[in-house]
Design brief:
174 residues, alpha+beta, 5-stranded antiparallel β-sheet, 4-stranded antiparallel β-sheet
Length: 174
C-alpha cells in the first residue's frame, strides 16, 4: 500500500514538474518570448480596423491594368498604427510618439463566396506598393506603408501578382 501511494505521489509530482516546464518554455518561446506587444502591427481588413477603433478612412482606387484574377476584391484604407497589449493580441495601443503614426493598409482577397477552399483566399495573391512609388509615402516595410498624416500626398501604384509571382495588374490608389 505504501509503495502504491509513493508511486502515485512521485507520478503526480513528475507530471506537475513536466507541465510546469512546458508552461515556462511556452512562455519563453511563445507570446512573451517573442514580445509581440513590442512591435507595430496593423489590420488586414476594414472590419478589424473599425473593431479596434483605429480606422481613419477608405481611399479611392482604380484598376488601370486588366484584372486577370477572377473575383479579385481590393480596398485600400488608412488606419492609426498600433501595437498589441502586453498580455494578449486583443488589446490595442495606438502609436502616438512617431513621425509616421498612420498605416496605409490594403484589404484584398478573392471573393470568398466563390472560393471553395477558404484557406487559400489570400495565399494565391500578393499585393505590394510599386517600387518607384515608395518615395511617395513616408516609410514602409513589406506589408504596410507608414504615413505622417492621414492622407496620401500623391497617387501611388499598387501591383498585385498571382501565386507564381507573375504580375497580373496595377491599381492606382489616391
Amino acid at each position: 500500500m505504501k509503495n502504491i501511494l509513493k508511486f502515485i505521489l512521485i507520478s503526480t509530482l513528475s507530471i506537475g514538474a513536466l507541465y510546469g516546464l512546458y508552461v515556462a518554455l511556452n512562455l519563453y518561446t511563445g507570446w512573451y518570448g517573442y514580445g509581440y506587444w513590442k512591435y507595430r502591427t496593423g489590420t488586414t481588413t476594414i472590419a478589424e480596423s473599425k473593431k479596434r477603433n483605429v480606422f481613419v478612412k477608405e481611399l479611392h482606387y482604380k484598376f488601370v491594368e486588366p484584372i486577370t484574377i477572377k473575383d479579385f476584391y481590393f480596398k485600400p484604407y488608412i488606419e492609426r498604427g498600433y501595437k498589441f497589449g502586453m498580455n494578449n493580441e486583443n488589446e490595442t495601443h495606438t502609436i502616438k510618439n512617431s513621425k509616421c503614426p498612420y498605416n496605409l493598409s490594403f484589404e484584398w482577397k478573392n471573393n470568398p463566396s466563390v472560393m471553395k477552399d477558404k484557406t487559400k483566399i489570400n495565399n494565391s495573391i500578393s499585393v505590394f506598393i510599386n517600387k518607384d512609388d515608395l518615395n511617395k509615402i513616408d516609410s514602409s516595410d513589406a506589408n504596410w506603408g507608414y504615413l505622417g498624416n492621414p492622407y496620401l500626398k500623391d497617387t501611388i501604384r499598387v501591383e498585385y501578382s498571382d501565386y507564381n509571382g507573375n504580375k497580373t495588374g496595377i491599381i492606382k490608389v489616391w
